[in-house]
Amino acid sequence: MTDPQSPPPLKLLNREQAILEFNRRVLAQAQREDVPLLERLRYVCIVSSNLDEFFEVRFADMLDAARDPLSPVTGQDVDRVGRAAHTLIDEQYHVFNEQLMPLLRKERIVILNHADRDEPQRAWVAKFFEREVKPLLVPVGLDPAHPFPQVANKSLHFVARLSGKDAFGRDNRIAIVKVPRVLPRVIKLPSNLSDGRQAFVLLTSVIRAHLEDLFPGRKVEAFSQFRVTRDSDLEVDEEEIANLRHALRSGLTTRHFGRAVRLEVVNTCPAELSEFLLEQFGLPPAALYRVNGPVNLVRLNELIDQTDAPALRFKAFEPAWPTGRLPRHKSIFDRVRKGDVLLHHPFESFEPVVQMLREAVADPDVLAIKQTIYRTGAKSELMDLLIEAARRGKEVMAVVELKARFDEEANINWAERLEAVGAQVVYGIVGYKTHAKLLLVTRRESGKLRRYAHLSTGNYNPKTARLYTDLGLLTADADLTSDADSVFRQLASLGKFKAPRRMLLAPFNMHSRMLELLALVEGAARQGYAGARVVIKINALTDAELIHGLLRAAQAGAKVDLVVRGACMLPPGLPGVSENIVVRSVVGRFLEHSRICYFRWADGDDGEALFLSSADWMSRNMFRRIEVAWPVVDARLRQRVIDEALMPYLYDTLDAWQLGPDGRSVRIAGNGQVSAQQALMRLYSDAG
């Protein structure tokens, strides 16, 4: 008889290919006719940005793993993922060139190459080159005294092959031109030169047209743009360092020159030049990506931002203020004392969270403020408020995660500014990222201390709160606020772990508790309970133990619905293995970011549990990060989460995809077009 606790015999899906499959779903947004045209172009830019990070982090890690003889990752795995990346990038440029560019031209929005420009336009471009561009370019001819230059991660360069000999009679044919980041990549032509259109030229086209001007007396026989992507993980030995902030500050200067993992050139680049570049960067031929267009499509965001065409963008959406539950211009603390307030972003405004902190800073009865800082941005009113609170003499504790990838520099700067005004700044636990989202305010009321908390699935960033779906809870619940205080104490004191009253805390008890809840559902299903149910909404599912827990519950007869925005390694729909599991991914106007875990093993409130969390179901989140999950115990709020943030996504037939057992996604088509995000936008617009 099969042991019900033994993992099912199946091969999980490849994580890196699952990430590429997610980006294929994002690229599909650029092909939707119901999406405004400039937003379709923005999705192309998003795919490029996502792929940059994929190569900088995931693919770089995969290459490292393939070199380890003890790793299960093989060279064949690397080749398979590399081929999938090539296919996706080729498809991306096809969408850009063959679908979006013709549609933009119909809207009289054009990108003019040198051949497309008339004489007045060429004259304007020539003056722009002489005035704005040429003074910042330093061409480097290669010879023994001028070796191949340092090329920073994702920086734009040109490589050129020159005719003849240099001024000293030497036969140095190859030159490199670095394009400074300070130069705009997209330039809008004056309206008097645009013939009633909105006309743009790319910086690469400007330089290409005048490349020979940089080499007087010589011909440019061949050339190409190129860009190299490098391993961008910060390498810091956290066991050897005395000060993490100083070590990371030093590491930021070398990050841009990590090991090369990808080389991009234009598809017209001669083989001689591409082979030369591959040799310089120590890359194999498979790492070469020939693209039909600009080597960095991310920069086309500049075109979107400069285009005056409101009809080609999403209609503006203003998040609603939760007036019925949180009256404007009244004390946040007075309202939260009466009961918990749930906020659903971006449909509801993030402003109440900012207002709570403003009120705390101004209130003389507030004695202490504690907050975690992960991705708050280079400019942040929340951080300015913490600084002001410290200036006013309040006890301020900030847990700053210095290793929030690509936000390290901004967080280091905030940490230094906070320390300068006397705030207590800690950097969490060495070896563990602090990813939990917590804000705790301690206030003196009637001679006693009362705590107020904000718990969130998303970051303390008002800008991304308008773009990401997240859930936040304002609460004065004694158990939850005590638990939040315990988390801050744990992070500061490094004492022994003491289980919180209600919260789950990774890396201590979150993983084990999720497995216990899955086992409860599994047991109920084995005993014949027809309502056994699991619904999980997360960004990624890659932890093998949790995957096997889901499989056991499904094999016992429980219904399992997963809404996984990004990488999912669980293959659903396999007969006898995962046929009771449906995996959906929703890609819409907003980035799905909330993490919700629902379990039902019996009828009634005592037979179900719903947790909100900062954690995805990945091993790194469960064991190498500080994460929190908290139960929604109020039955009304729990039902609201189910009705708004879970069930609509299970019936979405416009933005949803269904994952197959082979790891490929198929867009869901149903009767009528139903979008969970659009329905929520209408709901909150009507409420507002």
From TrEMBL:
EC numbers for this chain: 2.7.4.1
Xref: InterPro entries: PP_kinase, PP_kinase_C_1, PP_kinase_middle, PP_kinase_middle_dom_sf, PPK_C_dom2, PPK_N_dom, PPK_N_dom_sf
Catalytic EC class: transferase
UniProt xrefs under CDD domains: PLDc_PaPPK1_C1_like
Domain Polyphosphate kinase middle positions: 121-303
Domain spans labelled Polyphosphate kinase N-terminal: 13-111
Recorded GO MF terms: polyphosphate kinase activity
Residues annotated to bind Mg(2+): 375, 405
Residues annotated for ATP binding in this entry: 50, 468, 565, 593
Record's keyword terms, sorted: ATP-binding, Kinase, Magnesium, Metal-binding, Nucleotide-binding, Phosphoprotein, Transferase
Cofactor(s), names only, from the UniProt record: Mg(2+)
Active site: 435 (phosphohistidine intermediate)
Catalyzed reactions per annotation: [phosphate](n) + ATP = [phosphate](n+1) + ADP
Pfam families per UniProt: PP_kinase, PP_kinase_C, PP_kinase_C_1, PP_kinase_N
PTM annotation, UniProt: An intermediate of this reaction is the autophosphorylated ppk in which a phosphate is covalently linked to a histidine residue through a N-P bond.
Domain Polyphosphate kinase C-terminal: 331-493, 504-673
Family indicated by similarity: Belongs to the polyphosphate kinase 1 (PPK1) family.
Record PANTHER family: POLYPHOSPHATE KINASE (PTHR30218:SF0)
NCBIfam families from the UniProt entry: poly_P_kin, PRK05443.1-2, PRK05443.2-2
Annotated function: Catalyzes the reversible transfer of the terminal phosphate of ATP to form a long-chain polyphosphate (polyP).
Identification of the protein by name: Polyphosphate kinase
Provenance organism: Pelomonas nitida
Gene of this entry: ppk1
